[in-house]
Structure formats: structure tokens, C-alpha cells
């Protein structure tokens, strides 16, 4: 079981690093027996769905229906959304009134097969029709015996996309937690080289705060509502909106959010 005493241990263990943006990286994050059980349940789970919607993510699958998830994975998500753990995150990242997202919009169980990748990007910050702002991502990896030559390390890039600053292996029980904004650039851009019977598995958890705005109409650029793809130096990586026509650029940059319906 993961109890208050364990959270106190985590508080001593977790160190926030602000380079290239506020984040925490930790190995052996949770009790090994629990994480191995979650990995086993993930491997046996047959209801993963094609994620879709990613213009530059390949072969990615997910599942976000909490009530129908395997028992141990539900247990871990409940822990990550517990008041005690959220208080720890608030302290480590100097935030207040963090709220969980039990709909797991964009989160939950994630899996990528051989050939899969997710180009460097920054995530959506706002949910349309909700007065909430995304402030943190948490990724827990569930991959025993993952080999370095299979690729799949999560990369953290600087604001100007000039330099890769950090790499995190997707090995079992590794975790990364980071602040989300338009410059929190991350991804695993190289094609996975794992065997066909192995996938890169993770649990993705997102945290929000209530957005407070004095204006009756909030004008926010499209880039805050959706994924922004970023180009690495010397590559043919895409950049967000590079294929959008002029009208779409104008519409999403300047029109109030209530005019633009959620896709």
C-alpha cells in the first residue's frame, strides 16, 4: 500500500529542476511490486484504442475510461489524484488549488508500438468550455527490461528548440513530472525499435487549476488549446500550423474562444 508515510518519503526524494522548465525526474518512484503488477495488467488489457488526432504522432494507443481500467492502474491513478499527493505537488511546484481531471482527457493508459514516435511538442493548456488551465503532467513508465537501443527516451528541449536538455528512459517505475506551458517542449521523436511483441507503456496524468479572468470574453490563441509541434535543428520535423491556410491562422489567433467550437 502507498500511505502517508510513503508520501513523506517522496517529499524528501523529489527534487525540482528548473532547466529547461520546472520538472522532477525520479527512478524507483513507487513500490516495485505495485508497479510490476500494473505493468502486467497493462500488458493483458485488450481494450486500448487508436489515439487518433495526432498529426505527428505515430502508432499511439490509449485508454481513458477510468472505471473500466485494470485494478492496479486505477489504484495508481487514485493515488496520483489523492489530496495528499496533490499537496506534495503544490509544494514542489509552488502551485495552489490543483484539481484532478477524472475524465483523463488526453491521459490515462498510453502505448506505442515499434515504429511509433511522438515528435517534440508542447501540450494543450486549456480545455474548451471549461474554466480550467493545465499546469502539470505526470508520466509513469511501465516497461521492464527496456533496452536503450529501442529508443523511446522522453526528451526535454529548451524554449528556443536549439538544444535537447534532458532524456528520461521509459524503464519501469521511472517518472517525470513537469509544468505545462507553450514552451514545455517534450517528446520521443525517434522511431521505436522494440520487438513487435513489446510496446512502450505509460500512465499519463494531467493536473489543472481554475482559470480566473476578469473579462467576460476570454481571447486566447489557438496554440493554448491544442498541441504545438516543434522542429528540432537539422530535421524535417513539422511545426504547428505549417499547413493551415490564412483564414485558419486568423480565426484561431484572434477570434474569441466561444466562437470556435471544440473539435
Distance between the termini: 40 Å
Question: How many strand elements?
Answer: 12
Query: Quick check: average pLDDT?
Result: 86
- Radius of gyration from the CA trace? 18 Å
SS-based class? alpha+beta
Helix content: 10-25%
Strand content is 25-35%
Q: N-to-C SSE series?
A: HEHEEHHEEEEEEEEEH
Are there runs of 5+ residues with pLDDT below 50, and where?
214-220, 241-246, 256-263
- The best one-word shape is globular
User: What's the number of helices?
Assistant: 5
Biggest sheet layout:
12 strands, antiparallel
Question: Could you give a quick summary of the protein structure above?
Answer:
By secondary structure, the chain is α+β, with helices and mostly antiparallel strands. Helix content is 20%, strand content 27%.
What does this entry look like structurally?
- It is a single chain.
- Strands 1, 2, 3, 4, 5, 6, 7, 8, 9, 10, 11 and 12 form a 12-stranded antiparallel beta sheet that branches.
- The chain is built from 5 helices and 12 strands.
- The chain has helices at residues 4-13, 32-44, 71-80, 83-93, 246-254; strands at residues 23-26, 49-50, 57-63, 99-100, 108-122, 132-141, 154-157, 164-168, 175-179, 185-188, 200-210, 228-229.
- The chain is globular and about 45 Å long.
- The relative contact order is 0.19.
- By secondary structure, it is of the alpha+beta class.
